[in-house]
Write a structure and sequence with these properties.
This protein has 278 residues and is of the alpha+beta class. Helices cover 15% and strands 33% of the residues.
Length: 278
């Protein structure tokens, strides 16, 4: 059974420098399903310049995770929620300086929820992004801690058609491609690892689903302008498998869009909100 070390709360990691080129940017875009028709996302010499999807920030951020404590059983960790907040567009190449911190650990009874924040800056010290993970640690609850605040429900308006809808077939090799951006969990590729995790076959990375939803926003209502997406938060509510058809829908609201993503069988991203710079 997993144990929780509350002393890790507030302890910052040492700065991690992430150096990248246009190849990393394009590999990520391909990993979240971009095609040659989305030239500004996949071509370094695109007429209007190479654009970086805002969700690319999770690629460097995942390399700067803070210390979660000793004897963590990572097979019991489930990605529950994700959010990003950007101050400016991500450059198509350069160096990012990042620090990570565990901001809180909440006691949910059946498990503990770790909240981790990774902050990225440009080499000259300008704030670029904050990326926030909420990770559920199965079996690690019941330690007498704060249960944490209840999240405000974010739901699409009942009976109202979405203002945009984008569907795409998730390629059979999508997880194999996405993992090359740095998320190497074998659960997403190795059938034996997937079975150990309780799945009948490998599942798509949650952050790949998140990236596809981000791409749907950028190429749809944002008309390719990556600078307009300021924040995007969501809850991972079900799994996606390679080969599924994924549909991302959005309902316009004050300052952004209520977002929902679904497969043929279930809603996979819920309680989701994108904040847009008009």
């Amino acid at each position: 059974m997993g144990k929780v070390d509350l002393s890790v709360i507030g302890t910052k990691s040492e700065p991690i420098v992430f150096e990248y080129t246009w190849r990393d940017v394009v590999l990520y875009a391909l990993g979240v399903g971009a095609t040659a028709e989305e030239l500004s996302l996949v071509y370094e010499n695109a007429p209007d310049g190479l654009k970086v999807l805002p969700s690319f920030c999770v690629v460097p951020a995942i390399r700067a995770f803070p210390h979660f404590g000793e004897d963590i059983e990572w097979s019991l960790m489930l990605h529950g929620e994700q959010s990003i907040r950007l101050s400016r567009p991500i450059p198509p190449e350069g160096k990012l300086v990042q620090t990570g911190v565990i901001t809180n650990i909440f006691d949910k009874g059946k498990g503990a929820v770790f909240h981790a924040k990774i902050t990225g800056e440009t080499e000259d010290g300008n704030h670029l992004y904050d990326a926030h993970w909420a990770i559920f640690y199965l079996g690690a609850g019941g330690f007498g801690g704060d249960p944490g605040p209840k999240a405000e429900p974010i739901t699409p308006p009942e009976g109202v058609e979405p203002d945009f809808s984008f569907s795409c077939k998730v390629a059979e090799n999508q997880a194999a491609l996405y993992r090359l951006s740095g998320d190497l969990n074998p659960l997403h590729l190795d059938p034996a690892a997937a079975k150990r995790g309780g799945f009948d076959r490998p599942i798509l990375h949650g952050l790949c689903t998140y990236g596809i939803a981000t791409r749907s926003l950028v190429t749809g209502p944002l008309d390719g302008d990556v600078s307009r997406l300021k924040e995007f938060k969501t809850r991972f509510s079900s799994t996606v498998y390679p080969g599924d058809t994924l549909t991302t829908e959005g309902w316009k609201t004050d300052g952004g869009y209520i977002i929902q993503a679904k497969t043929e069988n279930s809603i996979v991203l819920s309680n989701a909100l994108a904040v847009i710079n008009e």
